[in-house]
């Protein structure tokens, strides 16, 4: 009984959020991973993605459908984002 309640709660939570998973390609530090989870209904609140690897750090706006727009880039060179999954 407890297991079924737990599994139902997990199922409900996964349907209330959307996650975006990325490989991030940096011309200065190579490839690393980044991810972001957000509520499906976030009332239009801005969503952001941040990442740091070695000497590279960035922040970006994240639009519906996991669309990335880089806002700050410190030590990353050129950044390319490859979406590798969603839930």
Protein architecture, described:
This protein is α+β, with helices and mostly antiparallel strands. The protein has one domain. It is built from 1 helix and 6 strands. It has one helix at 2-16, and strands spanning 17-26, 30-39, 48-53, 56-63, 67-74, 79-86. A 3-stranded antiparallel sheet has the order 2-1-6. The protein has a 3-stranded antiparallel sheet with strand order 3-4-5, with no helix packed on it. A hairpin with a 2-residue loop joins strand 3 and strand 4 (56-63). The two termini are 27 Å apart. Mean pLDDT is 81; it is low at 3-14.
DSSP helix fraction: 10-25%
Structural domain tally:
1
* Poorly predicted tracts of residues: 3-14
Structural class: alpha+beta
Put simply, the count of helices is 1
Radius of gyration: 16 Å
Counting DSSP E segments of at least 2 residues, the number of strands comes to 6
Keywords: Signal
């Amino acid at each position: 009984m407890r297991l079924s309640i737990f599994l139902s709660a997990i199922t409900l939570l996964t349907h209330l959020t959307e996650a975006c998973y990325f490989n991030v390609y940096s011309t200065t530090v190579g490839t690393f991973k980044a991810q972001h989870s957000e509520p499906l209904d976030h009332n239009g609140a801005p969503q952001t993605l941040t990442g740091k690897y070695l000497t590279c750090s960035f922040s970006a706006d994240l639009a519906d459908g996991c669309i990335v727009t880089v806002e700050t880039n410190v030590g990353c060179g050129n950044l390319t984002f490859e979406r590798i999954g969603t839930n």
